[in-house]
Amino acid sequence: MLIQQFEDKGLAHFSYVVVSDSKAAVIDPGRDIAPYLDFVRDQDARVTTVLETHSHADFISGHMELARKSGARICVSREMNVSFHHHDLQDGDLLPLGHLQFKGLATPGHSRDSICFLLQDAKKKEHALFSGDTLFIGDVGRPDLRGGFGTSGSAPKELAGAMYDTIRQKLLPLPDHVLVYPAHGAGTLCGKSLKDASSSTIGAEKKGNWAFLSGLSGDRKTFINAILSEQPFIPYYFPFSVMYNQLGMPGLEDSVKDLPRLNDTFMPEKEPFIIDARAKEHFRGNHIKGSFNIPDGLKFETWLGSIVKPGQQFYLIAENAEAGERLIRRIARIGYEFYVKGIVQGLSNGRESYQANLPADFETHPERYTIIDARNRGEYAAGALYPGALNIPLPELTERTREIPPEKPLAVHCAGGYRSAIATSILRSRLTQEVYDIGNAIEQKQ
Fold this sequence. Notes:
alpha/beta, 6-stranded mixed sheet, 15 helices, 21 strands, 21% strand
């Protein structure tokens, strides 16, 4: 038995390969399937099975390409109602893999189609649970991502009740020694309070996971209220990823190979939509008027899919050709490559710039400015860094610019400077008054 975990840090996504007797199963694969095929090849094995724990909202799965290239069968819950060729699974179904087997456990809660895979050895002893977005380390999957869209749509309250039942009926009865391998770690938007760990045990979760403790001692209504409260925002792209994963997507390289690569002297047509992924310092010094600055960082694709709506075509400006190739593959992880009109490799013709330094009177007379706090509501509620600041979380900013008074210049901050850079570029493209990014000053004060 061999279990290998793969991590996509940008999406806080974990996927897995299990190998037994030269046969391999890939669980919850990401869009880029090369790492799985390379690993399996090194083990002198072949992929025979692709297991999906649910129709993912936060990334595009590589299940279709894996099946095409390896001949593997894709196994999903019968509740997923997918359009591609697959094998339907019901609660209790067994899937052999060499001398091992997976037992499917229907675990609705995060979604109606959620299913966990319990790995058993030749003696049917339980070894590990591949828990998808049902069970995280310290948390469980949020139930409010699916209501009203996709064939897996259910009302959040209904799914929250289903999660309560799943915990009590399917997860708590598992032996304490069973390893837990989730589909996400800390940083995902599929849960709200994940611990910074990549694996656990059922025993440890029984003692330390709030949802397990609530499932043991709390009543159903209390649990539902707790799981529905204070969940993070939902990016624009999530509903579309669910749909795309149910339809099946083309391979990564096929999707990006024909995108136009443009040199640094490119000037687009009048008033295009532009995402500039260069560092904020480079953007400030030279950019195309009206562009949004989403710097190339750890959560680039998440913020892209939280600000750009599906179907909205855009040009991508990267620092150079190498950065452009890397970013377009990151964009493909959320299925946005279809909206890219071209990749601009560097920029020499921007002609717009703005002042990076905050005016000297800000600290002594902050009342002369409208201060925009771009943090989320929970951060703001825990403590406003400037009394009287207008809290508009970054994901809501493009829809709420009309709430900002026009009389004063703006000072924008978050907690560390990344979100404030994005927010500043958005506000400068939409409003007429001066906008200052004070994100770095906030970071230095903390």
